[in-house]
Write a structure and sequence with these properties.
The chain has about 230 residues and is an alpha+beta fold. It has 2 domains: about 1-135, Jelly Rolls (Sandwich), CATH 2.60.120; about 145-220, Winged helix-like DNA-binding domain superfamily/Winged helix DNA-binding domain (Arc Repressor Mutant, subunit A, Orthogonal Bundle). The protein is built from 9 helices and 11 strands.
């Protein structure tokens, strides 16, 4: 746990004493695939860091369709909004795979934010990044074509957040469809078209990007948009 905190972008500037104090307060939680970690409207007094696995952040409609706002992996944090304002959860968090999570309570984290400006700035960066992504999603749903939305989602999910891109994106086609607001069938049809052009390769539970440059052109509204 201490090694995880020392290497994590949010906590790496803390002193050894602060790391030890925070580690002593953290609870490890194991969650099975498909389990709800918290639901929209639940009281929120903690945030989570993903040690292993993937977590979907989104909401479900009354007819059972999901809208996925974000798909998070190892090293990502979530639940930070409720930690900062103490108000109810703004979305559902569901384990997309078996997960190991670190649970950090609001009462333990707020003193660190008050005393460590670097950590507070990192939290602000996380919030800004997610606000930008949410704004981009809203714009895409209103104005962008399916190929553009799909390319942007794949590039976003491939970004490690450390200036690197992972060629393999661990995401199902249903999850991708829920992110871009399209059916799994429409998403699959577009991906199959791209696969026939050797731009991506479809694998079980993942998509391998073989032509980043082409997807970037599509995301920017350039190049040939395959339908």
């Amino acid at each position: 746990m201490r090694e995880f905190l020392r290497e994590h972008f949010l906590f790496k500037n803390l002193s050894s004493q602060q790391i030890d104090r925070l580690a002593s307060c953290i609870v490890t939680k194991t969650v099975n695939c498909g389990a709800t970690i918290f639901a929209k409207g639940d009281p929120g007094s903690s945030m989570f860091a993903i040690c292993k696995g993937r977590v979907k952040i989104g909401v479900a409609s009354r007819d059972g369709h999901d809208a996925i706002f974000n798909l998070l992996g190892k090293g990502d944090i979530f639940g930070e909004i409720a930690v900062l304002d103490g108000r109810p959860r703004t979305a559902d968090a569901v384990a997309a795979t078996d997960c190991q999570l670190f649970v950090i309570e609001r009462r333990d984290f707020l003193p660190i934010l008050r005393s460590e400006s670097d950590t507070a700035l990192k939290i602000i960066e996380v919030l800004c990044e997610r606000l930008r992504w949410t704004s981009a999603q809203a714009e895409n749903l209103m104005f962008r074509s399916l190929p553009c939305r799909l390319a942007m989602a794949l590039l976003y999910l491939a970004d490690s957040g450390a200036g690197e891109r992972n060629a393999k994106v661990a995401v199902t086609q249903r999850e991708l469809g829920n992110i871009i607001g399209m059916s799994r069938e429409s998403t699959n049809k577009q991906l199959r078209s791209w696969e026939s052009n050797n731009w991506v390769r479809l694998e079980r539970g993942a998509i391998l990007i073989t032509r980043f440059d082409t997807l970037i052109s599509i995301a920017e509204g350039e190049g040939i948009l395959m339908h």
